[in-house]
Amino acid sequence: TVEPSVQLAPLAQLTALRSLYFTNSLLPDLSALAGLTGLRTLVMAGCSVRDVSALSGLTGLRRLDLGRCPVADYTPLTNLTDLMILRVGSPDVPGADALRQLPQTRVFFQP
């Protein structure tokens, strides 16, 4: 089941946050996460995430889990070159081929 919508705005002040976990949540807007440059692990498995452009500046991420998320385009994730583990949904989404080119990243697809 999907949980009620999560308000992310209060998290924007937690710039030293290292890990953040959500599962099966409504996350309509990720813009509050854009400044969390200290994040190393971000898990949003089964969440309602469609637009991941706010994550493109989180270049310190080592693990990103977007499994079972209806992401529309993976292209914003292609500059996350420090990722070691990336789990995403469908391999048929735009940008999926580029994810496979990330130098040290193991990419797992879980629709």
Average pLDDT level: 92
List the secondary-structure elements in sequence, H or E. EEEEEEHE
How large a portion of the residues is in β-strands, by DSSP E? Answer: 15-25%
Main sheet record: 5 strands, parallel
The CA-CA distance between the termini, in Å, is 16 Å
Number of helices: 1
Low-pLDDT parts are none
Rg result: 13 Å
Number of strands: 7
The backbone outline, from C-alpha atoms, is globular
Percentage of helical residues? under 10%
Strand order of the largest sheet: 2-4-5-6-7
User: From the helix content, strand content and strand pairing, which structural class follows?
Assistant: mainly beta
Write structural notes for this entry.
This protein is mainly beta and 111 residues long. 4% of the residues lie in helices and 23% in strands. The strands form two sheets. It has a five-stranded parallel sheet with strand order 2-4-5-6-7, with no helix packed on it. The chain has a two-stranded parallel sheet with strand order 1-3. The radius of gyration is 13 Å and the shape is globular. The model has no long low-confidence stretch (mean pLDDT 92).
